Amino acid sequence: MDVDDLHWFVVLAETEHVTDAAAELGISQPTLSRALARLEARVGAPLFDRVNRRLQLNAYGRILLEHARRAIAEMRSATEHIAALRDPDTGLVRLAFLHSQAGGFVPELLRRFREDAPRVRFELFQGAAHDIADRLASGAADLAITSPRPPGFPWRGLYVERLCLAVPRAHPFARRTRIRLADAGAEPFVGLAPGFGLRQLTDELCAEAGIDPPIVFEAMEIPTMEGLVAAGFGVAVVPVPRPRRAEPGAAYLPLTEAAAKRQIGLTWSGAREIPPAAARLVEFIIQNRHELP
Q1: Range name among 51-60, 138-147, 169-178 with the lowest pLDDT average
Q2: Lesser CB count within 10 Å: N end or C end of the chain?
Q3: Residue 69 pLDDT exceeds 90
Q4: Global pTM value
């Protein structure tokens, strides 16, 4: 049903006079009369009674008037909402990021960006790499900070994390200053669940080292892995921890393999336009990435 026809009907219902309504709307009387005829044909009933050269809203018309006002208000609200979302100063950014980025990089990034754009709103999602890729593909997220790069998505590298082997403090390996992953082939491993980017990297590193260690527990977050390592459940491949974020009961041994690293990057869907507020965040990240922790 045409929104203009509904708007014209509301004005006509309020004035109950074709000449007055046409003048208020700035259209001709025949144009308004044709619009009313279309509307009555669409609903299948007359909407006015003709009384002494005037129109009087009937029971059918009163029902349509209630819904027409509601529909016009909803369309106005939708238009205003869309305009707000497309405003780089007040729009919405739907950002997805890895669990491991929640303890430093992402909160600091958002804190600094909000100083620059305090009225921009955020819808945040924290999850595994495969869940993040699904949200980008479905349009549920505008941007993502993740690793590794999702196939087929644009990518902007932000920084590289070195990977290490976390072992219990009492483990014989703890006395070493570095270690080959192959040396840990007989150790039980604590890992992330399949689908997490770090689990994928760990599996690739183990395959390159020629080892297939048993996975004794599959965690959902890196701190859980580190805690289980400290408790003696096994060893784990994790990013080198940031200062003051290391698990006290674990020792972290740099891996000798050159491939023992993961790149954290910014990605988005190339199939749809990035909303202006999200594009503003992209520009901010690119300009400030070297100053972020």
Answers
A1: 51-60
A2: C
A3: no
A4: 0.70
